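Hey, quick one: can you model this chain's 3D structure?
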Amino acid sequence: MEAEAARRAAGIYPVDILEDDPERLWEAGLAYYATLRERVRSSSEVFSLPTGEQVKLEDSSVCFCTVHRDEPQHKILVLVNPQDTKTVVAVYIKGCWWSTEDVLRTSDPAREGLMKVQSFGERIVLFILNVIIFGRLERNLDDDDMFFLPHSVKEQAKILWRNGAAVGFYTTKMKGGLCGDGTGACYALPVFDTVFVRRRHRRQGLGLAMLRDFCETFKGDEALGVSSPISPAMYRVCRKFLMSHPEERGRLWEVEPPGAWGQRVSIWLKIQLQHASLPN
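Sure thing. Here's the predicted structure for all 280 residues.
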């Protein structure tokens, strides 16, 4: 754990130092996992969580996670909570363990605001935000939150960086891109697909900023989609955005793939109808 502490003290984080070589990362994880299996059960090596809790490093407390749903060979070695084996607490990168919060941090001041996901390190950040933070830690199973599967390796995404940490993301289905495996249908328009903002950063206009960025990115397109079904929270974002940007009211549609005209519903019209149905 000394190497991890030294790198954290130096302000170095995985996304800043990880090469674009998923196979090499997987091989390093395999080699480390083999050493864990060879150790005697009396090994005292542990990983200390930010809460002070310690997790023993042994083969029963680690597993491999697939980063992309369509590239099963792209795997990372993770450490799980012994009390909840579906909750990941650390990731093995560059020869040491990093807490999930440290995996989401950056020492690069240029990483600020919405930035397109390009490197494999950023793909891991996207995976942590999507599958681990949202999927296990910050998802309220009793409300209407959407559930996101691991993204495709070809998924177009932007991560929202704020004060040295990844706090959210959104993904886009590109016009002309295939709707999914086993189908020849292609998206007829760009689609704002999945979106997430960490709980402590909500109600600060970040969802609104992501929707605005999406519309500006595709300002040359006459029609833009938002994936159906739209959550209640996303409807509130759309309403606020369209109230302040009337020029976008005719462009935003709730769509089912592939987004042909018969699969589109005007978001602004739905907002107006919902408003009209409310009691005075």
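One thing worth noting: The first strand starts at residue 46 and ends at 48.
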